[in-house]
Every structure is written in C-alpha cells, then in structure tokens.
Amino acid sequence: MTSDAERLAAFEARIAAGEKIEPGDWMPDEYRRQLIRMISQHAHSEVVGMLPEGGWITMAPSLRRKLVLLAKVQDEAGHGQYLYHAAETLGVSREEMLAALLAGKAKYSSIFNYPATSWADMGVIGWFVDGAAILNQTMLARCSYGPYARAMIRICAEESFHYKQGMEIVLTLCQGTPAQRTMVQDAVRRWWWPTLMMFGPHDAESPNTPTLVRWGIKTRTNDELRQEFVNQVVPDARTMGLSLPDPELRFDEVEGNWRFGEIDWDEFWRVVHGDGPCNRERLGARRAAHDDGLWVRQALEAYAARA
Amino acid sequence: MSDTQWPRYEVFQQETPDRPHRHAGSVHAPDAEIALLNGRDVFVRRPECSSLWVAPASAIFGGTAEELAAGAPPTGDVSGETVEFLVFAKVDPRGTLTHVGQVQAASKRRAVEEAVHACGPQTPFVLWVVPAALVTRSEPGEAAPLFSPALDRPYRDQAFYHIQTALRRLRQESGG
C-alpha cells in the first residue's frame, strides 16, 4: 500500500521532471482545489470579459473595426469554453460553475467591473488588459496540469491578435485629431491602475503563491509579472506620446526596472468584494443572456428528441 | 432539462489531412450532430482544421498510465461481438492525446489491453479507446462549409497587424 507521503513525493518528482499531471492521476487535494479555483475564475473572466467590449460592437467606427471586435469577443466566448472544459477534468461540472457565476458567488477578474466609456477603451483594453493577460497566460501555458496548459497554449496564440488589434487602435488615435488624442489619453488614465491590479495582491499578501510555485501551477509571482508588464508598457507609451497617471514612475538604472507608485489596495478589495463600478450590471447582463437563451436550449433539445 | 447540463462530448481535431486527429477539448450538446457544430464553433475559429470527430465522454475508456497500472475494470463492460475501437494515446510527456490507430476487440477491457500491447514497451502517459461506431465524424464533403469560413478572416491572425513597424516609425520620427 502506497502512503500519501510516498504518493506526494512521486507526484512532486513528476512535476520536477517536467511531466504533466493528467486527469485521473493522483494529486493532492490542495492541488485540485487550487486548480479548480484558478481555472473556473479564469473561465468566468473570459465570459464576463465579453461584456465591456460587446457593448461597442454596434458602435464600431468602421466595418473593419466591427469585424475585428466581433472576432475578438467571439474568441473570448471560446476561451471561456476551453477553460470550463479544463476545470471539468478536475471533477467540477460546468453546470455548477455557471450556477455559481449567475448566483454571484464566483469570482472573476475585477478589471471587467470597470466601464468602457469611449471607443478608445477598445484600444487600451487590448493594449493593457490583453497585454497583462498574455504575460499571465504565457506563464500558465507551462503549468504542470496538462489540460490547463494545453488550453493556455491555444489561448495565447489567439490573444496576440487581441493585443495587436488594440494597439493598432491606440496608434491610430494617437496620430489622429486633437479630440482623438484626448480620448485615448483619457482611456489610458482610467485603465492604468485597474490593469496593474489585475496581477493580484503583492507577493507578501498572496498566501497561495509558494504552494502554487512549488507544484508548478505558477512559475512566476504576481509582483514579477506586474513589473514585467510595466517595463513593457512604459517605453511604448512614451513612443506614442501618452502619459501614464503615476507621478512616481521613474527608471531605476540599478535594477533596470521602471519603478511605480503604490496601488490603491482599498479600491482593489472594494471591487473584488462586489462594490466596483459595474459589478451589478455585469451580473445582470450575464443572467439576462442566460434567460434569453432559454428558447435556444429548448429548441436544441426538441431537435435532439425528434423521433 | 434546459437548465441542466447536456452530455459531454470529447472533440478531436485534424489540422491538415496528412496529420492525425488530436484531442482539442470537450463540448456539451444534446446530440452528436450539435456536438460537432459546437466543436466547430469553439475550436475552429481559425483556418487550421480539415476534420473533426466527436465521441460521447461516456463511451470512452482508458486512463493515465497510473490508472491503467491500477487496472480498475470498466463499468458496464460486457463482452459481445468483436468491434473496432479507435485508439488515442499521449506518448510525449508534454504532448496531447493523438489518434494512433485501431484495434478489434470484444470488450472495452480487451480493447485497452490490445491497445497497450500495440503501443509497444512504453505504456503511454494516457490511453483512450472508443468504439468506432460511436464516433461522429465531419463528412469530407462538409469540410468546406464547416471549416472554410475561418479562411476569409485574416484579421483573426496576429500577423495581420504591423504594430512593431508602426512603433519603430514613430520612434524614428521623434528622433528617439
């Protein structure tokens, strides 16, 4: 009889050797629990993430922009499905996950609780939000759990398109009329801090991180990823003549990093706990979409049940 | 029923006609025909598909090397007439379940044994068998209407955008 200690040692040795853990393999309960938490939150984020941009599809300024935005939002629906599949392999059902989302019990990325109030937001969301997501997802594509890693590889390939189409909008507006420049600068000002919050609490406040790193779920910490994001964005913002809303932003020659000011963690926790600008609106939109889709589900069932 | 989940189907995608089908993920659907359409919508938004297969998750048997070594018998397994099973295996530690061939067997358990034997000395990291009769496949004649819409959407590809060129030009203009 194999003891749990021996199983754990064998499990950790497999991860250290770069093998992927697959559904059905023995795994510590905590590994399963953490993965279900992360993957389901990630899936919900993709699904809720369709909403801020979805509202702009009919207001896109040209047919080309409309097709691109439609394709991006459709990708997000697909990404949600890849991730629900990955979470399901750990023993949680899609039904439970969707019920938790609709009941307001599930968490998703707080960034989607901020409003998209101008067309420039479609550019800045791609540049900032998808740029930040790519850093996180590139790390997760190396995750020790096979189904999550494989979902991430698919997602990363598609997210590059999301990032670039956003950057293209930002570049276009930056070279446009004074009103367009003002619009994009305003979007940058509004999205900067919420995007930095996407990486989560500081490492010192992130109790799960050491375990997640040891089991190869994460390979980098929140603060490392956040720093890389800042280092990546600041030079591009300067090139485009856009200013970031942080008076403390400066280049540290010794570290080779762009140092930035402190995040408003009160705001972060307020939005996480349901009191952001759009939490209620987003949940309401999800519930309405679910209810409005009832006739489609009924029609498909009637078709499947045909004699 | 409309608010509970439909059965799960595993989806296998072939990127080009000369390559084997590989496991893409799963969808839920009320029947196999809709599963195929859902699989197309979820996994084929880009032009990298020549064929899709779907199989009800309940029809698949097998598991990880660890599970195969433990040797739990398949539930509801009855010996009957010999039928064809499709075999999928993950042989690379970082790979994906890939269609590797067929075996003929009279039960799920025998199909797994045959498949393990056919894979040679190294047991795959994961091995699945599924009765060929329960796999629903996109018809070759349907490939164009099913998969070609993705061809007309080059803007879904990141290479469509020339961001670095534009940034470089801006840097040069500003003398930086």
Tell me what the structure shows.
The complex is a heterodimer of chains A (307) and B (176). With 307 residues, chain A is mostly helical. Helix content of chain A is 65%, strand content 2%. A two-stranded antiparallel ribbon of chain A has the order 1-2. In chain A, strand 1 and strand 2 form a beta hairpin. The radius of gyration of chain A is 21 Å and the shape is globular. In chain A, 40% of the residues are buried. With 176 residues, chain B is of the alpha+beta class. Chain B has five helices and eight strands; from the N terminus they run ββαββαββαββαα. In chain B, the strands form two sheets. A four-stranded antiparallel sheet of chain B has the order 2-1-3-8. In chain B, strand 1 and strand 2 form a beta hairpin. The mean pLDDT of chain B is 91. Classes of the chains: A mainly alpha (307), B alpha+beta (176). Chains A and B meet through helix 4, helix 7, helix 10 and helix 13 of A and strand 2, helix 1 and helix 5 of B.
List its salient traits:
heterodimer, A: 307 residues, mainly alpha, two-stranded antiparallel ribbon, 13 helices, 65% helix, 2% strand, B: 176 residues, alpha+beta, four-stranded antiparallel β-sheet, 8 strands
